[in-house]
Amino acid sequence: MTTGQSPIEMLTARNLECIRGEHRLFSNLSFSVNPGELMFVGGPNGSGKTSLLRLLCGLSLPDDGEIYWNGTDIRELGGDYRNVMTYLGHLGGIKDDLTAIENLRISCALAGCEIDEDQAADALRQIGLAGREMLPARVLSQGQRRRVALARLLVTRTKLWILDEPLTALDVAAVELIKGILEHNLAKGGMVIMTTHQELVMSTVTVHHLVLS
Amino acid sequence: MIWWIIKRDLLLAMRRRSDVLTTLFFFVIVVSLFPLGVGPEASILRIMASGVVWVAALLASMLSLGRMFSSDYADGTLEQMLLSPVSLSALVMGKAISHWLVTGVPLVLMASVLGIQYGLPVEALIVLTLSLLLGTPVLSLIGAIGAALTLGLRGGGVLVSILVLPLYIPVLIFGAGAVEASTAGMGFGAHFSILGAFLLVSIVFSPWATAASLRISMG
Known about the structure:
- The structure holds 2 protein chains of 2 kinds.
- By secondary structure, chain A is α/β, with parallel strands linked by helices.
- Chain A has one domain: 3-Layer(aba) Sandwich (Rossmann fold).
- Chain A is 32% helix and 26% strand.
- Chain A contains 8 helices and 9 strands.
- In chain B, helix 6 packs antiparallel against helix 7 and helix 7 runs parallel beside helix 9.
- Chain B is elongated, with a radius of gyration of 18 Å.
- Chain B starts with a helix and ends with a helix.
- The chains are: A alpha/beta, B mainly alpha.
- Chains A and B meet through helix 3 and helix 4 of A and helix 1 and helix 5 of B.
């Protein structure tokens, strides 16, 4: 299932190894994520969760091992892989001097899915930022900035979501909202790989736990 | 896509006008200091004019290089750019164009006004403006490579000047040379051809080299 073209969309990691400085974060790490599946990446601080996610989205290269999307190495796929994948890092990419709407529209355009102002306003309303669309991100709270970044998930049409700590700074209502968005994507046959320190109970979907130590 | 980047950077520059103005004021002040220091001898000033304006333009353009990618790096936008299905070279081209629009174009516009201080004849002022118009985009494009290479380094500002200034030398020689040639009554067409060639070469190679440097810096 790891080489050759496969008709089913899936993400496979084989024998991944990641070394940072003198420290080996993980080695011989293999897993695969199928459509409709969610994978939680857990582990203490500094165990390599973010490093793993950065490898999976192609931002950095593994010291050993390969990552395949539908049986093809993601390095060969390049832009085709980035077309089906959304990565939300813990930084979020929110500009202080731009309004919530401008931030959302630009980050969507960068991700290759241009939206007009109404669509952006609609997404922000759904994520609970009604009335704050035109405020510069500078005056938004930490949780509200997080929501602006997460609003991209509402408009994106990508299959594979790689989310680094999406729930930090969010209140209970927002966590429920995000849970709904994730479930919606999984029900459509999408895949989600995320790190979180919060327990997120997902009953209807297949959930994998990957714990780094 | 490239328009999105340009539009966004111009919007950000509009909201943070102080960044744009510091570069411009730096240019104006450096150019104005020379007549004050050297004295009002018209013949000396006329010889120095093109060199001083060009060196000040190099320094002013370099001053703003640090900001080119660092804010995108700090807030995570650069990660998004690297993960965009659009080619990174195109995005980098957009960044270089907006850097030129924000820092290069004001210098070009101010140069002729500052040239008057040096008693340059009208023809020389026109040649100076045109040479800056051809040369400043090269500065932004070459500078982008340096800015990408020094991204996230401590003391990156000094390093970027050490990396980039030697590469600016040919642009300086032919840019300032064009004005000298015109004041000496010689043709300046050859200088402009070479500046144009620099521009074309940097348009082709700089986005590619910058994109590669960004991938290394972010990896």
